[in-house]
Amino acid sequence: MSRPVALVTGASRGIGRAIALALSPTHHVLVGGRNADLVGDVVAGLESAEPFAVDLTDDVALAAAVEGIERLDVLVHSAGVVAFGALADSSTAQWREALELNVVAPATLTRLLLPRLRAAHGLVVFLNSGAGLTTHRGFAVYSASKYALTALADALRLDERGRVRVTSVHPGRVATDMQAQLNTLQGTPYVPDTHLDPAEVARAVRLAVDLPPDASIDSVRINPV
After folding, report:
1. What pairs with residue 177 in β-bridges?
2. Residues sharing a CB contact under 8 Å with residue 36, sequence separation 6 or more, in sequence order
3. Interatomic CA distance for residues 183 and 178, integer angstroms
4. What is the pTM of this model?
5. Residue 99 belongs to what H/E stretch?
6. DSSP structure class, residue 18
7. What pLDDT digit, counting tens, does each position of 137-186 carry?
């Protein structure tokens, strides 16, 4: 493989798909997602790509899936789940789902791939949220998971300094299916034109990817104007 290799989770739609498209001109993209058909549709539209169709919360399947990755230059964690509601109305299942997919899965995948990332002096990008910096009413579950993801990225950056670069990206509201779902949960109208385009978030990721090996963007906050 002459191209650098990038793995993007949650790449079958939304921000993850936009990032896969942004990296495609220069990278061989491993397109992550649970739905093999949707993943295949994205792969078909990229210059150099292959599927990485796996449930990130299935430890056995995930360990088997990463065995086929011999080289990795960029790892982008874009998969995630949203939740909304007061703590009093939340369930243990909601907490477990959010923490499992938003925190434990990226931690596990990163750990499994660290030897490849170290060998490449690579980059890990965590697609976080403004909710990982500031919380609001009704965001107990979601913000807790995103604050934890911020801490994970910060700790990994310290642990791997000089070997692997780590960037946290904190977008505001982005015009995606997840945002539409959140608006439904909040009982508010979904107006895509008032939100960020996923391509704008992908540009921020591309900026971090294109930096020379001796420079790093630790954290970036992106908001619609």
Report:
1. none
2. 51, 53
3. 9
4. 0.94
5. helix 92-99
6. H
7. 999 999 999 999 999 999 999 999 999 999 999 998 887 878 888 788 88
